[in-house]
Known about the structure:
The chain is α+β, with helices and mostly antiparallel strands. 32% of the residues lie in helices and 25% in strands. The chain has helices at 3-8, 38-47, 61-74, 89-98, 123-133, and strands spanning 12-19, 25-32, 35-36, 80-84, 113-117, 137-141, 146-150, 155-156.
Amino acid sequence: xxxxxxxxxxxxxxxxxxxxxxxxxxxxxxxxxxxxxxxxxxxxxxxxxxxxxxxxxxxxxxxxxxxxxxxxxxxxxxxxxxxxxxxxxxxxxxxxxxxxxxxxxxxxxxxxxxxxxxxxxxxxxxxxxxxxxxxxxxxxxxxxxxxxxxxxxxxxx
Length: 157
């Protein structure tokens, strides 16, 4: 299904998240009747917060829409297992000092990126499905067991 067609369908858009660091979950609609649901966006913001600092940041609804289409493409109702959602500038700087794979101006710091895996789907399948959408950046980290997805420019690494 093409991304625009998937999002044009009437009804609700639902997502599921399991934060692997906190054990917290969100599973439910985040959009209904043509509008984003403020209570759900707040709950997502909480689950995807920087687990190191507790800092919260708005998550770009475009990222949620991308994940909705990705979930449909993967043909799964499983929640996304979240390795990293929002990252505070402090956390991002610390990670950038210790890892080559962390951008100093990461989209994580503005709520436009997420590092995930999906139960029952291989990392290769997840990466390929995200690349096929051509909706943003896709990073593949098999040694760390996750795929990065963002709503920045289309690119891959």
